[in-house]
Design brief:
Elements (H helix, E strand, L loop, with lengths): L2 H17 L8 H14 L4 H4 L13 H23 L15 H11 L3 H17 L8 H17 L6 H10 L6 H9 L6 H22 L2
Helix pairs in contact: 1-4, 4-5, 6-7, 7-10
Length: 217
């Protein structure tokens, strides 16, 4: 096989890996469905659909046996690579130690329902929620919505974040340019709920952008 063909195959596999949702320990159903769909499109799902790997080739095997084995071996290798490429960083340390694609997928199915997974993901989500920072790469509305969604995911795993704590996490995520906003928030008697703080932050973001435009014109 030429180096060009090997390079093209690697690039196609990398592209497939980026098109599949990352397995994070909670989304096995969606992840496995997308993996099987992508492998099926490229006729690489043989190792996933066969209950067992075909026996190793010997001198007594027929041409059909050899063809089946080679097709399975290629499917198994590429399916494993695709699944490993689509692992989220927080679950990679617990990646199955097997060279069988079907077994790899079955282990992940069991893993997705384990207490170990829940604890690991809860820790990751909680860390992300408490350290997240607004960096102007997206609208403040989307930033706040993302933090609310993180809290919602934690709630589905039995870790409910009190609304007042979540509001404080959002306030802590703001950069120095929101300093006056934070001072005003801390001086008011009534605390805002999530919808109120989202609306007020959108308003403050607009004000800061206008100030910046004036300063640079």
């Amino acid at each position: 096989m030429s180096l060009y063909i090997l390079f093209a195959a690697s690039m196609n596999l990398f592209a497939l890996g980026n098109s599949v949702v990352k397995f994070n320990g909670l989304n096995y159903a969606d992840w496995s469905e997308q993996i099987q769909f992508q492998l099926g499109i490229y006729d690489l799902d043989l190792a996933i659909v066969m209950d067992e790997a075909p026996p190793a080739i010997t001198e007594t095997n027929t041409a059909d046996d050899k063809s089946l084995y080679e097709a399975w071996k290629r499917s198994n290798r590429l399916a494993l690579n695709l699944m490993r490429l689509s692992m989220d960083e927080n679950v990679k340390p617990s990646m199955p130690k097997t060279d069988n694609a079907r077994e790899f997928m079955n282990i992940l199915k069991e893993y997705s329902h384990s207490d170990i997974t829940d604890k690991s993901i809860v820790g990751t989500l909680m860390s992300e929620l408490t350290t997240k920072k607004f960096d102007w790469s997206q609208p403040i509305h989307d930033h706040v919505t993302g933090m609310i969604n993180l809290a919602a995911r934690l709630k589905t795993m039995g870790m409910e974040v009190n609304e007042s704590f979540l509001v404080q996490f959002i306030m802590n995520s703001l950069p120095p340019k929101f300093g006056q906003f934070q001072v005003n928030y801390n001086t008011i008697k009534d605390k805002w709920n999530l919808q109120e703080i989202k609306a007020m932050l959108v308003q403050e973001e607009g004000r800061l952008k206008k100030v910046r435009i004036i300063l640079f014109t």
